[in-house]
């Protein structure tokens, strides 16, 4: 079967409609339009736009560039079960159409960017969450996920009444291990007697753990049945299932990547979302697009940590804002990490 990559042009007028349609699982009317006017592009990770998390954060950066820089943008969606050749074709197509920069959302794009970037030396290629592929026209946008996850661990340990909390990783890869390591360390440093239940949904090369909510829901239900009263899922779209499970049991969930309390697709469960570990993927996308527009493309490693508010904890839930003791503990931990009094592990 011939595979078709969806490429859409992002415009200011359609921005609000796009977010609404995505929350309902719909697509924009411009999905089949040509991207001739596009000058920046993002190729989505597993789960695509509408995951209420990682990909949606990247999309927000593209929207911001449209609004503030008047830079049009193109989007390209992944296909189910795709291989490296599909990613190579997708990035090549985006670059040939004149988009600059072309950004791969997620470490899975590393092999493809390694092949495509040298063929388009005048195009800047960005990759989020990977430093393995380098080149004179490659920007590596990476985050200290373990630091934000440490803060989530502090919060989880403080609010837990059972002393048992859960961590759910989408796919067992080094990146997600960083989330687990930071979270577990934060929990244990706050309550040495606490128990952390850890589980991964799939093993590579099966990346369903980032895209299937039912997997996250089943894993969370299992942890809740074992006494966990806080569940933190770093699992992309699958994490929404964990949030649903926690909500059904009247327990706490901790979101990831985006401020999931404010995601339209999760409105029904938002009261259960204590906080979210945020990654400033939006600004990383915007900043790279701006650097290209300004004629000074940023390349090499661009790291976002607590010191630059590149990662952190969201406080949108009014209930969280009332937890002054939790907030005080989190603020102290943040200050200690920035001051290097606490070194957060990057592997369990």
From TrEMBL:
Signal peptide: 1-23
Keyword Lipoprotein: yes
Keywords: Cell membrane, Lipoprotein, Membrane, Signal
Taxonomy, superkingdom: Bacteria
Subcellular location: Cell membrane
A single GO cellular-component term on record: plasma membrane
Residue span(s) of domain ABC transporter substrate-binding protein PnrA-like: 44-333
Membrane topology summary: Lipid-anchor
The family this protein is said to belong to: Belongs to the BMP lipoprotein family.
Name of the protein in its database record: BMP family ABC transporter substrate-binding protein
């Amino acid at each position: 079967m011939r595979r078709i990559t969806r490429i859409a042009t992002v415009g200011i007028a359609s921005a609000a409609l796009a977010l609404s349609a995505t929350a309902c699982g719909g697509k924009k009317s411009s999905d089949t339009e040509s991207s001739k006017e596009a000058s920046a592009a993002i190729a989505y990770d597993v789960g695509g736009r509408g995951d209420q998390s990682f990909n949606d954060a990247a999309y927000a950066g593209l929207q911001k560039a449209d609004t503030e820089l008047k830079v049009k943008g193109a989007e390209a969606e992944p296909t189910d079960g795709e291989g490296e050749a599909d990613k190579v074709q997708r990035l090549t197509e985006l670059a040939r159409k004149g988009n600059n920069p072309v950004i791969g959302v997620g470490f899975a794009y590393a092999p493809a960017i390694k092949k495509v970037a040298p063929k388009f030396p005048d195009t800047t290629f960005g990759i989020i969450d990977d430093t393995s592929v380098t080149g004179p026209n490659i920007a590596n946008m990476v985050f200290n996920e373990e630091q934000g996850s440490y803060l989530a661990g502090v919060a989880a340990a403080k609010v837990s009444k059972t002393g048992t909390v859960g961590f759910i990783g989408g796919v067992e890869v080094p990146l997600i291990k960083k989330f687990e390591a930071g979270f577990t360390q934060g929990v244990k440093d706050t309550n040495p007697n606490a128990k952390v239940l850890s589980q991964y949904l799939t093993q590579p090369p099966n990346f369903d753990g980032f895209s299937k909510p039912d997997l996250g829901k089943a894993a969370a239900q299992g942890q809740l049945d074992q006494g966990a009263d806080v569940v933190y899922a770093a699992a992309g779209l699958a994490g929404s299932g964990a949030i649903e499970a926690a909500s059904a049991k009247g327990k706490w969930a901790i979101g990831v990547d985006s401020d999931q309390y404010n995601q339209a697709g999760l409105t029904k469960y938002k009261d259960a979302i204590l906080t979210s570990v945020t990654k400033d993927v939006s600004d990383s996308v915007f900043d790279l697009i701006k650097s290209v527009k300004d004629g000074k493309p940023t390349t090499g490693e661009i790291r976002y940590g607590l010191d630059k508010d590149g990662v952190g904890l969201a406080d949108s839930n009014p209930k969280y804002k009332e937890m002054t003791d939790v907030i005080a503990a989190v603020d102290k931990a943040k200050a200690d990490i920035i001051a290097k009094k606490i070194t957060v592990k990057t592997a369990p």
